Amino acid sequence: MAYPRLMTVDDVANYLSKPRSWVYGNWKAEQIPFRKVGQSLRCRPADLEKWLDDQN
């Protein structure tokens, strides 16, 4: 079974067309669905899509 690749902060920034600094500065306030993996933030692509669908 192939597992979907987790997105890094850089991946999310590129996907959202936002600077990396914006993602780091706003991920909690904007409730971007990151999970901490060790010291890193990672996001499932499906969770990011759902988050985007829920935005006004």
Describe the overall structure:
It is globular and about 35 Å long. The protein has helices at residues 9-16, 20-26, 45-54; strands at 35-37, 40-42. Strands 1-2 form a two-stranded antiparallel ribbon. Helix content is 45%, strand content 11%. It is built from three helices and two strands; from the N terminus they run H-H-E-E-H. The mean pLDDT is 93. The chain is mainly alpha-helical.
Provide a quick synopsis of the model:
The protein has three helices and two strands. With 56 residues, the protein is mostly helical. The protein has one domain.
State which percent range the strand residues make up.
Answer: 5-15%
Look at the structure and give the mean pLDDT. 93
Identify low-pLDDT runs.
Answer: none
State the strand order across the main sheet: 1-2
Report the count of strand segments: 2
Strand count, sense and closure of the main sheet? Answer: 2 strands, antiparallel
